[in-house]
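lol ok so funny story. i was supposed to be doing the assay writeup but got distracted and ended up predicting the structure for this chain instead. priorities right. anyway since i did it might as well share w the group, maybe its usefull for someone
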Amino acid sequence: MSQSAALVATLKQALRAQGKTYVDVAEALDLSVASVKRLFAQNSFSLERP
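and the output, tada:
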């Protein structure tokens, strides 16, 4: 498992443990739910935001 895939898996586990959903993440990041789902599905996270 690559480092990015492991990081995403750990992030999903942490969110699940806290009872957070993609809706919660989307609201916190000011993104659409579809965008959050796409980020998780593609394992492509960036700290840069426009």
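The chain has a mean pLDDT of 88. Residues 3-17 form the longest helix (15 residues).
back to the writeup now i swear
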